[in-house]
Amino acid sequence: METFNIPATPLLMKEFLRQMGGTAVIDGGLATELELHGADLNDPLWSAKCLLTSPHLIRSVHLDYLEAGADIIITASYQATIQGFEAKGFSREQSENLLKKSVDIALEARRMYYERCSKSSSGGTGDGRILKNRPILVAASVGSYGAYLADGSEYSGCYGEAMTVNALKEFHRRRVQVLAEAGPDIIAFETVPNKIEAQAFAELLDEEHIKIPAWLTFNSKDGVNVVSGDSLLQCASIAESCKQVVAVGINCTPPRFIHDLILAIKKVTTKPIVIYPNSGERYDADRKEWVVSSFSL
């Protein structure tokens, strides 16, 4: 089986994209697919609940996405935090092991996929599955502080005046260390809703000498700023200035805003652009569900 040599350095994303011909496909929504597989995610841990109850479903979803053609799979750690697991009664050691488990599952899915590829000579199957031996990245997801709160604040960026960059660094510090040590190819800081959390992530990467490259993706509800109202250009500039950040972009944002947001980001960064929007629905924090927007397209 072919070995893909992609350096775990600030050159990772550009080298990966070079090998992929210029573009790569990220997987889709994890929680949606887990629910289709029968998982009950009505829990503050959301998709991370399956790390406790049904890790085999997470692996199955990763494999489904790889067989659908995804080149990057994102771990089930978006809402997985040490603080969140400890609130469920787990020890610090158990909580850290669950974080590591999210990466292990994705790495195992990639190994299984490559094994399936080695047994296939056609690059696919009769049922439409893609079995193509190609570079695949495992991205360890780090959701925002608001995701841990499970109150919808990752879609508003409103953490209160008392929240600071230093407090956010301390909240995320050990989580980032554990995920990096677990051996993913890249860390995905996702749904970053405000400037102070972007700054916290950038400083953490530097302070902890994290060896794994990272990307930062922000969310927007107006197509101009991030959801807190902070300037997208300022947020993207923070990502641009951090050596370990190898790509910057937008996630969990209505598709109708994406084109203009890409153009805005390109004004302040030379790094590859990461884009994975949502369906255009709006999150209702009171009902804890996504609702159809009258402007969903």
Automatic annotation (TrEMBL):
Keywords for the protein's UniProt record, in alphabetical order: Metal-binding, Methyltransferase, Transferase, Zinc
Annotated ranges, domain Hcy-binding: 12-297
The keyword Methyltransferase is annotated on this UniProt entry: yes
SUPFAM superfamilies: Homocysteine S-methyltransferase
One Pfam family cited in the UniProt record for this chain: S-methyl_trans
Keyword Metal-binding applies: yes
PROSITE patterns in alphabetical order: HCY
Listed NCBIfam families: PRK09485.1
PANTHER family recorded: HOMOCYSTEINE S-METHYLTRANSFERASE-LIKE ISOFORM 1, ZGC:172121
Record's protein name: Hcy-binding domain-containing protein
Native organism: Gossypium arboreum
